[in-house]
Protein 1
Amino acid sequence: MLGQQFYHETVRNVIVAFGTMFNNINIVRKNNSGVITQKMKVPLAYGPKQKYLTRLDTDPAQANKVAITLPRLGFEIGGLSYDTARKLNRVQKFKKVKSDSADANKLDTQFMPVPYNMDITLFAMAKNSDDALQIVEQILPYFQPDYTLTINDMTDMGIKRDVPIILNSVSYEDNYQGDFETRRAIIYTLSFTTKFYLYGPVTSSKIIKTVQVDQFANLPEVSPTREQRYSVTPNPATADADDDFGFNETSSFFEDAKNFDSTTGTDVNKTNE
């Protein structure tokens, strides 16, 4: 079972889709007259919150060290867990005929995926309350408490799936207390759960378009007599495995002493063993 290499980039695609939701948040700053004096896009990066807090406390006057600018958005993965409530039938399969002309007679199959939940934490850091609230108010209205994204789960199999992103909680932190040399940081932490599926390997096999069964009498003799052949072919003959097609069934009767040679595809005289 284990040892077959495959990588569908499912977790990576979910993380990228999550980050894309928050990569176009802007804030504005106004003067006392209500005139906009500054408009800026809030930068977004993947990384743990503690890393940014450490950079925040860095003295920019020291050589080779630069303090980060605020506001800023960041997110990180919290963990993965199996979701028993969304379990699918493990014996069912996805099927798709290869569109490549070189492999037009091959069928890709894949067992049903397994459901997983991934916890993701998003944090918004700002140096004043108004900047932080602008960021939060541009996010919260979209989650009631979930927001659904459609991602390409399996491009090779042509599978698209809706991925709910659920907002679990919002927490607030303000490290205002401290000396005058400590930089203030207001932090809103938003906890999310994404519900997605992980896929196993894809198996490729040739498409069976003809089934032939020869029936014999006088079994279990060494040289039984062939009496009937039952054949099944798709209708139309050009149908692929994922098409809507019927079947042509043919029954033939024999009184000869021949056997079917699978190598040559013809009937040959049988030989006594």
Protein 2
Amino acid sequence: MPKESNKITMIKNAFIALLLATSLAACTTTDDKAVIKTIKTQKSTEPNLEEAAELNTQLAIGYIQRQQYKPAKDKLEKSIDQNPDYLPAYKTLAYLYALLGQPEKAEEKYQEALDLKPDDPDLSNSYGAFLCSLGRYDEAQERLRVAYTDPFYETLYLAESNAGSCYIKQGEYKQAEALLRKSLRKEPKLTGSLISMAEVGIKTERYLMARAYIQRYHAIKSPSAESLWIQIQAEKNLGAKDHYIKYARKLIQDFPDSDEAGWVEAEARSEQLR
């Protein structure tokens, strides 16, 4: 069976939640020159540190999306200096540290954010996903529950999805399925929930279900090594040999260095020895 989703994937999912659930989502299409121009305009007039902090955080997110992590970190630290109460800067810096493999620093920033607003649902969702990526499952579920039980949280389906995925890691498939189905009723094309439901199907030996959900996933998003491995397992257990071979070849061809490709090759060698 495949290994659990890696930490980076879980952390990136938390960042997607951060972008969708806050006003910072607009910065994904913000032109850097326009933001810089706004900052310069502010400098020529009376300084507004709160707006400057927001703009610097927007710039930082743009840098992160382009994998320019040093300037992103600089902008976020500047944002916090400009406005020590600006929550999105702490959340984004925490994400950045987690992405860079520095969980201790990420934890520190999450705690500082919680000091500012302990019941913020978006922060709870992001921090819960981070805790799950570290294997701190009980703490993660407690924090995620704060998010998905908040009736005013506009994107609570993201927290339901993260909690469901975390329950899979815990081997609690019934709880996982219940939350994932709830998230998909709200957002039928949520790819994180679709691939997690396919994984539940594999784990509980409901292979038609696994196939259905992974096909829905592939209709929206390009295949990954992880998603192809799930498809392969479903086809193999359904006795669909032609489909099994088709997806196995695609996995080896498109992701030759992945762990999943190694598993397929190991399975093939095992079959030859029988």
